[in-house]
Design a protein that fits this description.
Layout (H helix, E strand, L loop, with lengths): L10 E10 L2 E11 L4 E5 L6 H8 L7 E6 L2 E2 L4 H10 E4 L11 H11 L5 H14 L15 H13 L5 E5 L7 H16 L3 E5 L3 H7 L2 E6 L2 E6 L1 H6 L4 H10 L3
Parallel strand pairs: 3-8, 3-9, 6-7, 7-8
Antiparallel strand pairs: 1-2, 1-4, 4-5, 9-10
Helix pairs in contact: 3-4, 3-5, 4-5, 5-6
Length: about 250
């Protein structure tokens, strides 16, 4: 279902390269993500997936290439970069919640500080979002009092509180106990159905099959192959993808 990208993608990367010292982690990346599209990025460890996610909101800088978000080239720094970051939500592998603030305070901090929304408005919206992710009863608790799955759902609510145009998910379930993974994936699947533009780095192949419009397969810092889930999982076109799938789908 790659046609969603259309002629006016929300994100476009052209010729993006990134080195960490001698390590060439992103090699001439070209990729577009359409408005309302769910792109799932998969591949072996060390293939550049997380770095790809992080360059889109400049948590990592690039060496060469162009990244355009919503019609504007990514700013390097300053207020313009802060504005961009407020439009691109990010959900990390580790939940990155403020331990000294309640769950509701974590969710309302961005809207009140960055968007200058009143505390009352932010709290009302925050409670709506906690209900959406299924943890309203945890609003007054602190992160350490919640399970990993509940903390990650709080992190998703925090990202949604900024009304982002896109959310980046960097292996959001890899730090969770197996029984908590599904509750987080269910929330993400709901967001996908609601039309949220998402890029998801994950090892959860069931989620990739169900929720993705497009699979992007990376290896050795390059995009090796991309296509719809039905194409990729049943008829991968490259030997590298076939080898990867043969190893992960036999478990």
């Amino acid at each position: 279902m790659t046609e969603i990208s259309g002629s006016d993608p929300l994100v476009r990367l052209e010729g993006v390269n990134k080195h960490f010292g001698p390590l060439h982690v992103l090699k001439d990346i070209g990729l577009s993500v359409g408005r309302g599209e769910v792109v799932v990025v998969i591949g072996p460890s060390g293939s550049g997936k997380s770095t790809l996610c992080r360059v889109i909101n400049r948590l990592e800088t690039t060496d060469t290439g162009t990244i355009v978000f919503d019609g504007r080239e990514l700013p390097a720094e300053g207020r313009a970069l802060a504005r961009l970051r407020s439009e691109v939500g990010m959900v990390f592998q580790s939940f990155n919640l403020f331990s000294h603030k309640t769950i509701l305070e974590n969710v309302t901090l961005g809207p009140t500080r960055v968007r200058k929304i009143s505390r009352q408005q932010a709290e009302q919206r925050g409670m709506e979002l906690l209900e959406r992710v299924g943890i309203t009863s945890q609003a007054g608790k602190y992160p350490a009092q919640l399970s990993g799955g509940q903390q990650q759902r709080a992190a998703i609510a925090r990202a949604l509180a900024m009304d982002p145009k896109m959310i980046l998910f960097d292996e959001p379930t890899s730090a969770l106990d197996p029984e908590m993974v599904q509750e987080v994936l269910d929330v993400m699947t709901g967001l996908a159905k609601d039309g949220m533009t998402m890029m998801v780095v994950t090892h959860e192949m069931g989620f990739a099959r169900r929720a993705a419009n497009r699979i992007v397969f990376m290896a050795d810092g390059q995009i090796v192959e991309e296509g719809s889930p039905s194409e990729f999982f049943t008829q991968p076109s490259t030997e590298r993808a076939r080898d990867f799938l043969s190893k992960i789908l036999t478990h």
